[in-house]
Write the structure tokens for this entry.
Amino acid sequence: MSLRRFQKNLPMLCLTLTVLAVLIAAPVAVCAQQLNFPLAAYSDAELAKVRDWEKTWAGKKIDQSNVDQIKEYLPESYAGVYKKPEVWNEPKGFWFTIVPYKRYIETKGMIEATNKYYTQVKVDASNIIQNYGETAGMPFPNPDLSDPMKGGQQLAWNYDHNTHGDAYHWYRIGPALEVKQRTERVSDTDMYELYYVSRVDVDPKPNLMASNPKGIRRGYFLHMYKPPEFINTRMFNLRYLDYNKSDDGYMWYSQFRRIRRVSTAQRTDSIDGSDLIYDDEYLWDGAIPRNTYKYIGTKDLLCSRQQDIKKLERVPGQGMPNGIARERLNTMVVEVVSKDPNYIYGKRVWYLDPESYYIQWTEIYDQQGRFWKCFENWTNQFPLESTGEMKKVIVGTEFMDFQRIHCGISIQECKGVGLKNVDQNNFTINNLQKGGY
Amino acid sequence: MKRKILFLTAIILAFIVSAAGLRQAFAEVRLANDKIILNGTIKQTMYYRTQMNSAEYERYHKTRMDYNRFSALLKAQFKIKDCQEESINFITALKYWYELAPVYDPKMRNGFSPAVPSIDRNWYTRTQDRDYVSEAYIDYIRGPWNIRLGQQIVVWGETDIKRTVDIINPIDVRLGSPGVDAWEEIKIGLFMLRGTYQTQLPGNLLFEALYIPGDFRPARLPVEGTHYGPNPIVSNTFYPYMPYGVTTWLFDQARKDAPGWELKNYEYGLRVRGFTYNIDWTLLYYNGLYDAPTAIADTLNDEFFSNYISKGIISSITKKQQKLSFSDKKCYKYPRYSMIGGTAQTVIPALHDSVWRLEWFYNHNEPYNRGTNADSSAVYDDVKRDCFGFGLNWGDKFNMPWTHRFAQDKMMDVSLTFFYERVLNWDDDIIIAETGRGHRRGAAHSSEIAWSVQQFLFNQQFMIMFLGSYNPIGKYFICPLLSYVPGNHWRWELGFPTYGSRTPSNKGLHDKDSVLFRVRYEF
């Protein structure tokens, strides 16, 4: 009887067990996917080795005398700068310190947005995102690195979707240095950045406006105080979701006293005597589809990720500040080649922070394939005004031109990140007109 | 000789200091917790004439450096209130200049009829009276409103060198010219109430209105015998018994007849700015007095004869020096006219992402004198005519193949502008050739192209520039310029402006080719 009853109820039992199994297994599976984001630079085993290395090196001052011992963790060019400071007309030499690696975990908003939207990302056969601006967070939290081209492209998209806390205000002091004369031309600029879409940290999310008919992705406003010829010159720039549409740029140039529309398409023009071109902001500031990307692998480098800019030491004319705090980081290396055959750079090599998706280092080659420039970003964490969580932002950059032995520095004081009240009127002609003296 | 050595030593010393020292300095001075912000420029500008009539040189010059000006501009912003909701600022710009050429060259100033008339020497060589204040106004910003009250300089145009619609403030070209000097130095500030209002209407329309309650200041023209002015008379039966030439008498009489500040001389302007089909445009209207004088023919002819010509005749007969006078009667007037115009600018991706700028105007009732065969010495009456014109500017950047090593591939900036204007209802007697507007005598229209090519080198420490313009009547201006900027504050410039004209009635600066040397300290 009971056997018959058991046989009769067997299908029901199987169904129940199956449902139970699914209910138990599904969250595990989801968690398994979620656990891969945010990524960590090191596995536990790798981290243990790093900690061992740090026992020897953390807290140490690295200069000309001992740079050879850690040169494998610096780009060759920068190891040379520390080894031969006389080339950079710095008789006293340069130095930096090593600090322990500290894992950075993205903000809750970024993690939630990534989990919510990454499955909605649509790409075409060339891995170009088709619904750009309709999602938020990292579009590829688990990039497919088995295919170098696809993996490289996905890492680039992740880089692109770091919205820097959605609204960021910083004050930039940027000397461009003539190394031989030890003279410098300083630019002081107040800068604002506001993301209109793909927002993750500041309400309203993910879109700033219910309707965005112009398809604005990001606004960028700057007010210059130095050099003297640019005093009170102000500019704004609007970037669009349409990859093929050039930015709109307007400038109030105080010497002409006019609001001039500026062509923003010539992005390879160098900026006011610096070693930067317009595409070099953040170490890449252009549409992702303009390049091809190839994932090369990983490289353990010393990167500045906890930089207190007040601890930087520099006298006027010095090409690179002393006191940069660098830590080990297993960066992801991506080779970037422009699709424009006449592009000013032959290629760039990005060294990406896998935890924050900032480019920590980039090496740049000219059209003849000769090594030309190497730039380094310094980052640090600041509390978001919106949630109080810590968000990593760029606090400075070193730009070095190794062909012409020329360099520049950008020291960026964070005035606020994750700001709730960045006025959209900053990005209007009226704002330029009003402050035009 | 001693003076020359001192002068050269000072320049060389400044150059050494700027090129090698002073590494840390501040671009602007901030006081009282950033509530007061000061910045400015100190400048020394010199022209060494490479072309000069030998007779003129013999008689009027001891040196070929006929222009040597020290000038300074100090701008200040006083923040009275600065908060999110509203801000109130007081903006002021003070200027000073001193022209040294007649000081160190005695032949320019000595004698009864010197190159630079003594009557105008102080007027043009140094700042006087209201000229010390270029601007001084209260600026109030609240929400979409921006109100400014006080002496201001307004820029309405888009093109750089020619003032097509940029006509609110008169210009002072006694010692400078547009394109070479900053607008603060060229334009004369006027007292006005000016306001802008940003609407939420489609096209982001921005309205602007200004009202000038009768603060009329005429344009200022260069003084005879100076670098920018007409050449001094070398041989004439009136000389050396007359203290100055015809031009000086006419210009000074016109200045004397200028109406000054009277409510009836009010001027006003309206402008709306918008954005449509990827074009930034403005539409504007202006009504005011014409900055340049128009002769009252009958009065001028009589008064000019009695106050100048008759004394010239007497002097040539008696060989005695004559004292000249000006008429108490009004010989010149500054009639009212109006203008509608507009500007447009856009970037055209299909044309190498070049920037295009357009300005156009239609002047209604613009005043002109008429003279027999358009001869300015045979004026017989004045008329009003309408006139239209435009300027079209193309600007682009190019990567030059040879600039990698010297300019880190810094792009070359190229700009080309075409100007055209035509006077309607034309009359061949209308006097226009001498006005500097580029017309051939008796021609209703004029056209001109102007260009500038600029290349920065060595991380923008050096800049080479090639400026110029050409008018089909055979008039041209060409100026290669080299600039050196060692660091934050100093700017050294060396140029060679050359001029030419095939048209006797429109010679301009045809014999004033010079080497330009300018040093600036900006803070």
Q: What stands out?
A: Confidence is low (pLDDT under 50) at residues 21-26 of chain B.
